[in-house]
User: Which sequence fits this backbone?
């Protein structure tokens, strides 16, 4: 049995009043109202309290708007806030928020039970606080295991107790002759307004108690907005009336000094005690119902480890998550027995507030992106959701900055853990829409012409079958080093491969690259031959200004292909693309990746681009230990000194850390010098002539290959892009 079954109609499904309104309102009217509200009024006075209540409720109201928008967009199943977040922001973010949310709710049960036990022992001092807590936990847990409906109905009784306590307070009388103090005690004796705000704010954040029952509701899309708004409205009215009663019946100093002031000014003080018990028990019950359902949803979505799959089970007519409930009860019993949770209580509050903030961010992002899939019945402008998120973040810092940092750290650790597990979620998320919007924004702001200082390679690799020419992909990956784009392109025969198979080819190549930890775009194109296919790719591939500026390809070894190969290189150059040709006669690859030789003729065009490529290579993990040697040949000793002075200045200004060497020919042939100097190198770079005249380039290329055939792996570089590459270096 799994969580999806919770949405099937059943006679046990809850309505708006029982499923959302009651648990939410009872959590809002909690212990703070009874034991701390007088202190609030005493410190900031009637006007200050009304401001705090209004501001706090406004933030909660904005969050409820976001919740309502998300809840009315698509069918809502079990898991409450976790479900809403995960279906929008993805499994990793949903889990990173959902796991702390479960822990916060589970430990909240312990906090409420301990608070109830302390109040009972204060009246009956002979009782043992631990045993009171254990018995209370077992009773509430048994009720939650027995029947969700019965548990909810018990909250109606608790609501009655709270109503009696509030009525008793309203019918009471002043404790002393006093007048309403609009601003509380003098500033020297009072606590700062924002500190008081931070103490009160958690009182109005109980709306999640109802949202967590989403899987047990007959109509979540209707019940969640309606029940949440009703709870916030009723809570707001009560919290706006209470300060008037308190301020009119006791002076500010008395309200601060006497935490039991309500009991003393009520017509029947015992009703206030019953209200305190009701508040703690109702809050504990709400958390005990909500926490297991979040745990169940986490297990059902495979967010938790495999051993936790048992928590996805539901039993009985009401589909109660008994395994998750038993685990939560056990956790509560342990924490109640061992005691004080005051140290982690602030962090738990931050987990709740983080959930509210993320819900606001989710709604704002959905609206802002304008996704076709986001069509909520309850429409809210994204500005209100953004204000809610900012309000939650501000309150978190006000309440406890250190606890906020700790909560974010825990969430970040869980997110990284889930990301590494590579959870396969079937429901998608906002990620693609967010990235699409960012890409759109960036594309329209890219410069039409490349700026030398901001130049980066965008490489189109004509690899053919990736496995056969892996060194091309390897070189492109090392050059880009995760800081630039490159695309692996395969040209397939249009007679042998139908169009409907192209996507399958692309997916297989992507998987192949992923298994080798290579991040690259993949494009498969059908063509009559590789040369026309490559030409077509260079002409058409790219998006706006984001197009490849560098073509990386292998050598052609068949004489019959020399002419179309040369025509293709010529087309690349005329298209203003840089060309990198990798020639490896002996298929030896890059060997140890320890020595790179650059045969240099100067700083302009090819020379500058080779220096840049070598520098990018040396910054990669694979080539970081390599030495780069720039070699220049001069005819005689007279030319040596001038060349050395020039190179000293150039390399000092380039700041690459490369070594350079000036070789004197003394009548020797250049190719012989190169063969001797670079015979043990791992990679040799040299410039390629501009392929302008038809026929001439073919002869030149054949001669170049013949004269360098004894050398190891070579890279011929042709700078075709209209970029002043020397300005990248100097």
Assistant:
């Amino acid at each position: 049995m799994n969580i999806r079954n919770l949405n099937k109609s059943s006679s046990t499904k809850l309505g708006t009043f029982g499923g959302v309104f009651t648990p939410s309102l009872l959590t809002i009217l909690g212990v703070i109202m009874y034991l701390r509200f007088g202190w609030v009024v005493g410190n900031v006075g009637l006007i200050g309290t009304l401001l705090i209540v209004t501001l706090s409720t406004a933030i909660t109201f904005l969050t409820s708007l976001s919740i309502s928008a998300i809840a009315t967009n698509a069918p809502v199943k079990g898991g409450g806030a976790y479900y809403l977040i995960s279906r929008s922001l993805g499994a990793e973010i949903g889990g990173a928020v959902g796991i702390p949310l479960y822990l916060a709710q589970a430990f909240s049960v312990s906090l409420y039970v301990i608070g109830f036990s302390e109040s009972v022992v204060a009246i009956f001092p002979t009782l043992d606080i631990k045993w009171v807590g254990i018995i209370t936990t077992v009773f509430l847990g048994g009720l939650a295991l027995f029947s969700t409906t019965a548990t909810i109905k018990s909250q109606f009784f608790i609501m009655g107790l709270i109503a009696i306590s509030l009525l008793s307070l309203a019918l009471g009388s002043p404790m002393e002759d006093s007048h309403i103090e609009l601003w509380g005690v003098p500033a020297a004796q009072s606590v700062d307004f924002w500190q008081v705000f931070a103490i009160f704010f958690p009182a109005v954040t109980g709306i999640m108690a109802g949202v967590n029952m989403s899987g047990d509701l007959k109509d979540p899309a209707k019940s969640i907005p309606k029940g949440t708004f009703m709870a916030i409205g009723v809570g707001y009215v009560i919290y706006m009336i209470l300060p008037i009663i308190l301020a009119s019946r006791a002076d500010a100093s008395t309200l601060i000094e006497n935490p039991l002031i309500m009991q003393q000014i009520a017509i029947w003080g015992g009703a206030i005690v019953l209200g305190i018990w009701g508040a703690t028990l109702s809050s504990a019950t709400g958390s005990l119902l909500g926490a297991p359902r979040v745990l169940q949803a986490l297990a059902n979505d495979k967010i938790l480890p495999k051993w936790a799959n048992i928590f996805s089970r539901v039993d009985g007519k009401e589909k109660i998550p008994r395994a998750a409930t038993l685990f939560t009860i056990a956790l509560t019993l342990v924490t109640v027995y061992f005691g004080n949770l005051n140290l982690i209580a602030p962090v738990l509050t931050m987990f709740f507030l983080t959930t509210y903030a993320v819900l606001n961010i989710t709604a704002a992002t959905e609206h802002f992106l304008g996704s076709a899939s986001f069509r909520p019945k309850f429409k809210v402008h994204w500005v209100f959701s953004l204000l809610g998120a900012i309000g939650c973040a501000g309150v978190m810092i006000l309440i406890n900055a250190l606890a906020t940092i700790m909560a974010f750290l825990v969430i970040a650790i869980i997110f990284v853990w889930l990301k590494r597990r590579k959870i396969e979620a079937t429901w998608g998320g906002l990620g693609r829409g967010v990235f699409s919007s960012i890409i759109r924004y960036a594309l329209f702001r890219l410069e039409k012409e490349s700026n030398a200082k901001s130049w980066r390679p965008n490489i189109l690799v004509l690899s053919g079958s990736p496995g056969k020419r892996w060194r091309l992909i390897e070189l492109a990956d090392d050059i880009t080093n995760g800081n630039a784009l490159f695309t692996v392109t395969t040209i397939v025969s249009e007679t042998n491969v139908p169009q409907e198979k192209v996507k399958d080819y692309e997916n297989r190549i992507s998987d192949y690259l992923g298994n080798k930890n290579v991040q690259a775009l993949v494009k498969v194109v059908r063509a009559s031959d590789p040369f026309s296919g490559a030409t077509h790719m260079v002409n058409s591939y790219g998006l706006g200004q984001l197009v490849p500026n560098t073509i990386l390809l292998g050598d052609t070894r068949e004489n019959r292909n020399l002419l179309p190969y040369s025509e293709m290189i010529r087309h690349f150059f005329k298209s203003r693309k840089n060309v990198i040709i990798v020639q490896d006669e002996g298929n030896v690859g890059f060997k140890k990746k320890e020595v790179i030789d650059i045969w240099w003729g100067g700083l302009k065009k090819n020379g500058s681009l080779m220096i840049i490529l070598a520098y990018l290579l040396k910054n990669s993990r694979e080539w970081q230990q390599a030495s780069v040697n720039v070699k220049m040949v001069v005819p005689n000793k007279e030319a040596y000194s001038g060349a050395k002075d020039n190179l000293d200045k150039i390399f000092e200004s380039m700041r690459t850390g490369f070594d350079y060497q000036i070789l004197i020919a003394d009548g020797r042939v250049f190719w012989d010098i190169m063969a001797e100097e670079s015979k043990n190198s791992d990679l040799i770079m040299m410039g390629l002539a501009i392929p302008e005249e038809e026929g001439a380039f073919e002869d030149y290329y054949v001669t170049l290959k013949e004269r360098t055939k004894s050398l190891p792996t070579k890279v011929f570089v042709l700078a075709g892009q209209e970029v002043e590459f020397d300005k990248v270096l100097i």
